[in-house]
Hints:
- This protein has helices at 25-36, 61-71; strands at residues 3-5, 19-21, 77-84, 90-96.
- The chain is built from 2 helices and 4 strands, in the order E-E-H-H-E-E.
- The protein is α+β, with helices and mostly antiparallel strands.
Amino acid sequence: MPRVLSYPFRLATDGGLATVDQDSDQADTEEVAMVLLTVRGERALIAGFGIEDPAFRGLRAPEVIAAVTRWVPGVTVSDVAVSSDSDTTQRATVSFA
Length: 97
């Protein structure tokens, strides 16, 4: 199976670039994280990539599902659970197949 760069971009313990098997569960997890941690408009060359900045309105499950469906082919979201750790922190658990 081919290997692809890991997200976040980093060095591996051997000094090379960290990679994961393409189309593996780990690769899918990293792709979902990349979409959800990118604010829409942040990547000028990929219009619409990411989600709206959740800083003042919170993270919304329908938006998470729509973004993952659009930008992570082959991944089907089965559940999104959003919880508040504090007044300033939210945690999203995305279940997918």
